[in-house]
Amino acid sequence: MTTIEIVLGAFIIFAAVIIIALVAMQESKGNGLSGALGGDMMLSEGRGRSNDLLVVKYTKYFAIGFFILILAMAVVGLFS
């Protein structure tokens, strides 16, 4: 393994842990199967909506970064 592969691997692990934490922080959007079958609508009072949007935005950015890191690791693996 080259140094660049080790560094990319460390960044991939870091990004994966951050993505897991961000997804765990996101608020559930529904009630699951019981809400779908019962027709129960969960009405949000608008509290914390901006925080939820911020977490979703950061999750998207880290997922894109994770994808780019995986592609970079594959390219480095091809040429080493």
Q: Would you mind describing this structure in some detail?
A:
This protein has 80 residues and is an all-alpha fold. The protein has helices spanning 3-25, 32-38, 49-79. Helix 1 (3-25) runs antiparallel to helix 3. The longest helix has 31 residues, at 49-79. It is elongated, with a radius of gyration of 18 Å. The model has no long low-confidence stretch (mean pLDDT 85).
Compact description:
The chain is built from 3 helices and no strands. It has 80 residues and is mainly α.
- The average pLDDT score comes to 85
The stretches of 5 or more residues where confidence is low (pLDDT under 50) are none
Q: Which percent range fits the helix content? A: over 70%
Task: Give the DSSP E fraction (strand runs of 2 or more residues).
Answer: under 5%
Shape: elongated
Radius of gyration: 18 Å
Number of strands: 0
